[in-house]
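Quick review question:
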């Protein structure tokens, strides 16, 4: 039955997102949660550990960026399965806007973090591989980019929390399959 489907439309026999879309969704969720948890709790660690906490935060953030292109491709190729029963039109429109904002933030937030480090002049790396700086580092520019990165990171956090709450609303209040479409097969059966 899967062979009869087009690349952009999900089969009616499988009301869930494609396996890769689901896997990348949950992997990126874990990476974002780790990055946010680390940076939000960094101040509670002894001063000598804070540099390592920031390094780990950057690794998770860059991993998010690396995985976002495959995630976007998987989402576009796998299509969006319809919600059953369908929500009102205004909710469907709002969902598209929220997903667009989440995708934009998942690209923009790590890119701003990378730009901040590139302009900082401080040594930085991805998984031990040294990364370059701009020819003329500018600490003021780096701090402004870091502030914007932090603002977008907070926006991403709040929007992701709202996204999760809306998923739970669909599952427990509306009792539709909006959340089940993104769950692994065993969890979607519940």
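Suggested answer, residue by residue:
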């Amino acid at each position: 039955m899967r062979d009869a489907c087009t690349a952009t439309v999900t089969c009616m026999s499988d009301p869930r997102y494609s396996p890769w879309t689901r896997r990348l969704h949950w992997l990126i969720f874990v990476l974002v949660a780790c990055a946010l948890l680390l940076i939000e709790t960094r101040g509670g660690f002894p001063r000598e550990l804070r540099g390592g906490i920031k390094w780990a935060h950057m690794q998770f953030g860059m991993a998010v960026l690396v995985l976002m292109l495959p995630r976007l491709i998987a989402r576009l190729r796998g299509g969006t399965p319809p919600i059953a029963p369908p929500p009102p039109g205004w909710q469907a429109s709002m969902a598209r806007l929220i997903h667009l904002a989440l995708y934009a933030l998942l690209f923009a937030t790590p890119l701003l973090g990378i730009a901040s480090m590139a302009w900082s002049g401080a040594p930085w790396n991805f998984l031990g591989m040294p990364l370059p700086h701009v020819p003329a580092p500018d600490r003021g520019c780096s701090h402004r980019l870091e502030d914007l990165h932090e603002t977008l990171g907070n926006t991403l956090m709040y929007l992701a929390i709202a996204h999760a709450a809306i998923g739970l609303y669909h599952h427990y209040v509306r009792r539709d399959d909006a959340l089940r479409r993104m769950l692994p097969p065993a969890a979607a059966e519940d």
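Why it works: The mean pLDDT is 91. The longest strand covers residues 125-126.
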